[in-house]
Amino acid sequence: MRVRYPDAERLDLVEDLHGHRVADPYRWLEDPDDPRTATWTAAQDALAADVLGALPLRPAFTARLEQLVHAGAVGVPVHRGGRAFSTRRDPGQEHAVLRVREPDGTVRVLVDPVAVDPSGTTTLDAWSPSWEGDRLAYQLSTGGDEESRLYVLDVATGERLDGPVDRCRYSPVAWLPGGEELFYVRRLAPDRVPAGEEQFHRRVWRHRVGADPDGDALVHGEGLDPTNYYGVRTSADGRWLVVSASAGTAPRDDVWLADLSGDGALREFQAGVDAQTAAWVARDGRLWLMSDRGTPRWRLAVADPADPATWAPEAWRDVVPESDDGVLSDVALVDGTDGSLQVLAVHSVDATDRLSVWAGDGSGRLAEVTALPPGSVSGVSAPPEGGTTAWVGYTDFATPPSVLRWEAARPTALAEDERAPVAGEVPDVTVVETHATSRDGTPVHLFVVSRAGEPDTPRPTVLYGYGGFDVSLTPAYSAQALAWVAAGGVWAVANLRGGSEHGEEWHRAGMRERKQNVFDDFAAAGEHLVAQGWTTHRQLAVMGGSNGGLLVGATLTQRPDLAAGVVCSAPLLDMVRYERFGLGRTWNDEYGTADDPVELGWLLGYSPYHGVRDGTAYPAVLFTTFESDTRVDPLHARKLAAALQAATSAEAPVVLRRETSVGHGARAVSRTVGLAADQLAFLAAATGLTAPGR
């Protein structure tokens, strides 16, 4: 039976933009304070409650997810002054807590977000211990707004020494020795910036713990691009400061270096170059450079921070050269058993991570860590003062984030250091890697996850993708994927252009005027799953969030026949006006800007909101939005939901589900369960999945 949708006024609003006639009939839904928007939203809430509440598998998915979501998670430790700092979430905890392990092995909790806010709406955004390990800077935000507030505490006593310092969203922290001063990033006060630009205008500041932050010393950023994000790093001896800047999410950065033992002036290391370089001075006194400058799959090199003659790329000396097939993603400096400096390096090959050991003098690879199972390395760490031990964060499709330990005495081996607990039974899964062929002949890698022992017949399948911002989709524990697989379905993850799976060239092949490649890759992945017998079009669903919401939004408007169900979460959908809201202005290097006539043409070519066609049989669509989302405004989902509800000729429902007091990022575990259960139950109804799970 066809759903009766809430009434939505359709404006006769057509604008001439650079010669393009652009209709925007639901412009009024951009304003949450418009009485029409409030009435329409309330009616959508009622519709969502009715549709989602009647889904037959919702209780079963909720029960399964309660177990799987409450699997624990353990973070990679950061070592400072003999102490080890790390996060851990145990089954039953809403948020991970930040702990410290003392040299004698005792463990204490330093920051527990639920203790700070029993309602569960406060999240720990970032943290950084001082070089001596006696002080900790950490950042909290509330209600999903990601507006981080910076605090400092005494590690031994737990006493708060500083904070809150506001306007610290996305702020790195770099300590000076002694723990009395730090460098950080803070936005200018709202009354010092043009209206509408309050989320921009960051600066690098030098701060003394306990002092009024309004008196902090300005270090860098004045007169530069207002959308810049900044990075700051110091050397352990306090001599060197490295500052980096990137305009929004552009895949390029400028880098400056200052000798704080001299005049302290920042000197240009890299500027105006179409490349990314992470730079830091390590304990050996060398300037370490992890860069894609001329090497799109990245390399690790060294230079002399005190000698600008060595700063030119042709003078860099490679330690880990660019790989022919792997993308270098992380490194840790360790000591060999003979005292030599070595590098533990992470490379990704077809979205699966590998570990290897390299000589710190650049003489080549020493060993492959063959004990690493197929999966993902979330990070590698070692004490900055040196040592023969390193810690490796690890996860795969059935293993919650855990920590492994590497020892120089057994360089090819790994030992379990701390395993995340699991609340319930994790299904025994089979992972198959396969490749689809995109429209232009490009191979597209997929992971296909199913329950071991299931019959080799077409089954309801969820295809998940992202395809943007240099983000790689590698194997990772997902309660949602495991719940679907446990119910007899198939879960597939596509490694699309726009990500980092094959380096910066792969990223750029899916951005700006080449964004259509991403949608072609995703459609090819869906067709491949059907052709290989995993599923059928009537049993296929697609799912994505944020930039992945744009992905599935474009897919459902370009290929409404591809899938039977769609989950589109926190999506970006009106590509003509996306820069006007949230952080949209920082993404125009990824997508293009509507202010440019040529680039507007790119955007209109795939903008989901502008691609809706009346009388089309659209699949079942569930939009999920978060009212405190300060990155992607919920208006995108409101506008496309209204357009699809008016246009579709099918009986498949188009539903808008919204939440309050949560945002784009981290959330309490219990909120995750409710959202995931609704999404899976909706897709189960769309694809014919009927098993309650085992």
Automatic annotation (TrEMBL):
Q: Which GO terms describe its biological process?
A: proteolysis
Q: Name one Pfam family in it.
A: Peptidase_S9
Q: GO molecular function, one example? A: serine-type endopeptidase activity
Provide this UniProt record's keywords sorted from A to Z. Hydrolase, Protease, Serine protease
The record's catalysed reaction(s) read: Hydrolysis of Pro-|-Xaa >> Ala-|-Xaa in oligopeptides
What GO cellular component is one of the record's annotations? Answer: cytosol
* Stretches assigned to the Peptidase S9A N-terminal domain: 8-409
The chain positions of domain Peptidase S9 prolyl oligopeptidase catalytic read: 477-688
According to its UniProt record, the EC number is: 3.4.21.26
Q: Which InterPro entries does the protein's record reference?
A: AB_hydrolase_fold (IPR029058), Pept_S9_AS (IPR002471), Pept_S9A_N (IPR023302), Peptidase_S9_cat (IPR001375), Peptidase_S9A (IPR002470), Prolyl_oligopep/macrocyclase (IPR051167)
Top EC group: hydrolase
Family membership: Belongs to the peptidase S9A family.
Put simply, this protein is called prolyl oligopeptidase
Q: What is the source species?
A: Geodermatophilus saharensis
